[in-house]
Design brief:
3 strands, 84 residues, little secondary structure, three-stranded antiparallel beta sheet
Length: 84
Amino acid sequence: MTEKPEEFDESRFIYCNNCLYWSGNELGQCRRNTPTTENKYHKAVWPSTKASDWCGEWKHRKVPEQNYDVKLDKFIEKSDRSRW
């Protein structure tokens, strides 16, 4: 008997650590917009957030599966082997 796969419930994952625009571990930076200079050093920075924070701009971080061996094989097939 085949089990029905669990449906993806996006509401369980709408935190910064699963967002396309977020970079970090427990603490990180939101890269959704350009950095701002609202600090005493006048240095441009992205907003700091915790992994468990969330906002209305969240977008799922989809990491495509890559098959680098296939891409390398195609590159080798197209390359000029006389240069080797």
